[in-house]
UniProtKB/TrEMBL annotation:
Record has Zinc as a keyword: no
Name of this chain's protein: DUF2075 domain-containing protein
Organism: Litorilituus lipolyticus
Coiled coil: 289-316
UniProt cross-references to NCBIfam families, sorted A to Z: pepcterm_ATPase (TIGR03015)
InterPro entries: AAA+_ATPase, AAA_22, ExeA_AAA_ATPase_DNA-bind, P-loop_NTPase, XrtA-assoc_ATPase-like
Lineage: Bacteria, Pseudomonadati, Pseudomonadota, Gammaproteobacteria, Alteromonadales
Pfam families linked: AAA_22
GO molecular function list: ATP hydrolysis activity
Amino acid sequence: MYESYYGFSERPFQLSPDPRFFFATSHHQRALSYLQYGLDQGEGFIVITGPIGTGKTTIARNLLANIADENIVAAQLVTTKLSPDELLELVAAEFKIKTDSNNKADILQSIEQFLVQLNKQGKRALLLVDEAQNLPSETVEELRMLSNFQLDNKPLIQSFLLGQEELKDIISAPEMEQFRQRIIASAHLKPLNVEEVKNYINHRLKQANCNKDKLFPEEAFQLIFEKTLGVPRKINIFVDRLLLFGFLEELDTITNEAINEVASEMSVELTGSLDGSELANEQSAQPLVVNSTENVENIKNVLREVEEILETTIQQKVKMTRYIDKLLKQKNRQFAELQVKDNEN
């Protein structure tokens, strides 16, 4: 939408993890170094944890994109609440291992035969498990059992676990002692600070070949940090929306006024959940009884809020109509220019 207006070769703040846009803060670089160290060691578990949206999946994609060793056969799982048997079935599927039945013993045997065959070819398997906090403890233990597959005292498969902070609680449980003893490194990602937010945004703009100087003034980065709390995913959502707003309003610079206006718009939408606050509390879930002056006043407040939301929605529809009108005008100009060139020829 706004790419041509700001001279981007592509959208710089897409949500999909893209190794080309990877920006390594000190925490991200440390986590990536641990992953690389784990690869070099060829054994044990690496565990990367962090809050939602801090870039765990991006790190995993970056690692997979930059693996130079052709002898590593990698697969990535994005887990749900899998039982141990379901985990094994998914591992077999991701490595394209043919199994003769759904029997656990048969699946384990097929996986072991696959790993031994890789070893004979001078290769080894790497399993990246994303959203690992969703795994029950018995399924995490199944991963440890997979690491028992060895040949000549060398492990045939290595696993990296990436997950939200709940993963630390799972691994810290008393019954997970054997698993903890096989963790050779771990790292915890944190949100970006103000300076990192600035460098993160400028890095992505540069990757998209931005041709606008000082698109974001210096004071804007502090405000963006305050609105997003330095969480990369929230930054992507918010700055993408800022650029769309800037295009619709024909802004050459994203001012603090624009940032505050967009943040205000998004606060009453589902988009991005910038503040992360609860939508409702227990009291708001109770039935409303109109039998007091206080309840009547509550109803008035609710109606005022509904009116504000409707007004915001109408404003957004007006902006979208303006955007469509602008696109049509651009297309008409392009068509007219083509006709002029055809007539000249």
